[in-house]
Design brief:
This protein is an alpha+beta fold. Helices cover 16% and strands 16% of the residues. β2 (24-26) and β3 form a beta hairpin. It is globular and about 30 Å long.
Length: 57
């Protein structure tokens, strides 16, 4: 099985914060982190992000 890596930068819910300690955030899951939100979700649950929504081009 080929796993597809989630790229937060291509998601509509991803945003960059002004917080130096937690520079990346996810609007849908309502959290900020040092790492990409998809990485935090995977490490916490063992599942790829289920809320990914690609940005319109």
């Amino acid at each position: 099985m080929t796993e597809k890596k989630i790229t937060c930068n291509k998601c509509t819910h991803f945003y960059v914060t002004w917080d130096k300690q937690y520079p990346r955030g996810c609007r849908t899951m309502n959290f900020k982190s040092k790492d990409l939100p998809s990485t935090v979700v995977y490490e916490s649950s063992g599942l790829e992000c289920q809320k990914f929504k690609a940005k319109k081009k």
